[in-house]
Write a structure and sequence with these properties.
The protein has 13 helices and eight strands. The longest helix has 20 residues. It binds ligand B5S.
Length: 336
């Protein structure tokens, strides 16, 4: 196990829990709270031309703070590496959850889809589009709540969400017809299409558009035709039809989706996308624990926390806040 000196004294790094293209994710313990975190480690040399994506994602994660988005606690950049200290999501990928159950009943699919709609509506409201929505990018935390991850392909179009994007990206099976056709597209409309593919995967256990040959896959996506298995209810089929409209202008807008009859069934309240906790407001109890531990004036600490430098103080504050929200003791462990 190579020892990441940049983390020494702050985090106790354990095993690798995930590895993808140019990144690996390790389990770690935050020393002062003892809480578990996930650390995404990227080697700058291996990143090559993907390096700007990392900065895009880090900038996005510093803005995006909501209960259904995996939280960024700290960023450490050295000569050779980036370290993103992230919220620990031990429930694994939604993808694996669907595979294990074959497919989900409508009620369970609705519970997840409401959380996905909440996260997507929030990032769109903040002027971002995810552009790579798929079950692999939705993790479950210890309370079975969904957390959206991997904003490496997200876009914040200059001039707002009404400006078109051009770069083709994301995973083909979840990509919108206008995107695979190479046309200009709105990130928000493309995300809604991907949500349709996601909902189909939740309800059916397989993909609406699938083919080993990429050209055939694109033809199927652009045709907009997919099988409707007999177990789908009429209401589910109606929602899928609203989401999987080939013409992006006919696709249901995310704000209408939040109060769609299918999403309301059994809940009777529209999906809320507002963050549960205000970021600007510094919690007094966490501030007390920090000021005693560091022996520093509350006012100084409050000002420093409000700079949101995403340094160790940000991470420690956010982890204490996490504890408060989960009604766990707000305390730091002194390191001798
Ligand atoms: C904003 O959040 C992000 C951004 C990003 O680019 C990547 C990630 N990736 C993460 C975050 C957390 C975990 C995790 O906690 N996994 C885990 C923990 C305990 C047991 C099993 C898994 C993560 O896992 C990667 C492997 C998942 N199959 C990735 C978050």
């Amino acid at each position: 196990m190579s020892h990441y000196s940049a983390l020494k004294g702050y985090y106790h790094v354990r095993e690798t829990i995930g590895s993808g293209g140019f990144a690996k994710v390790k389990l770690a313990y935050h020393n002062l709270t003892g809480d578990k975190v996930a650390i995404k480690i990227m080697d700058k040399r291996q990143l090559g031309e993907d390096l700007p994506r990392v900065r895009t994602e880090i900038d996005a994660m510093k803005v995006l703070s909501q209960q259904h988005i995996c939280k960024l606690y700290q960023v450490i950049e050295t000569e050779e590496k980036f370290f993103m200290i992230l919220e620990y999501c031990p429930g694994g990928e939604l993808f694996d959850y669907i595979v294990a159950k074959d497919r989900l009943l409508e009620e369970e699919a609705r519970g997840f889809f409401r959380q996905i709609a909440s996260a997507v509506a929030y990032i769109h409201d903040k002027g971002y589009a995810h552009r790579d929505l798929k079950p692999e990018n939705l993790l479950l935390d210890e309370d079975q709540h969904l957390k959206m991850i991997d904003f490496g392909l997200c876009a914040k179009p200059q001039g707002g969400m009404q400006r078109h994007l051009a770069t083709c990206c994301g995973s083909p099976a979840y990509a919108a017809p206008e995107l695979v056709a190479g046309q200009e597209y709105l990130g928000s409309e493309a995300d809604v299409w991907s949500m349709g593919v996601l909902l189909y995967a939740l309800l059916c256990g397989f993909l609406p558009f699938d083919d080993d040959n990429i050209a055939n896959l694109y033809k199927k996506i652009q045709s907009g035709k997919y099988d409707v298995p007999k177990w789908l209810t009429r209401e589910s089929v109606k929602l899928l039809d609203d989401l999987l409209q080939v013409d992006p202008k006919k696709r249901i807008p995310i704000k209408h989706l939040l109060c769609h009859p299918w999403l309301l069934t059994g809940y009777d309240v529209p999906v809320s996308f507002k963050p549960k906790h205000k970021k600007r407001y510094i919690d007094e109890d966490c501030l007390t624990e920090l000021s005693v531990f560091y022996n520093r004036r509350r006012e100084d600490l409050k000002r420093e926390i409000n700079e949101w430098n995403y340094d160790y103080l940000t991470a420690t504050y956010l982890l204490l806040l996490n504890r408060k929200h989960k009604k766990r003791p707000i305390r730091l462990i002194s390191q001798h």
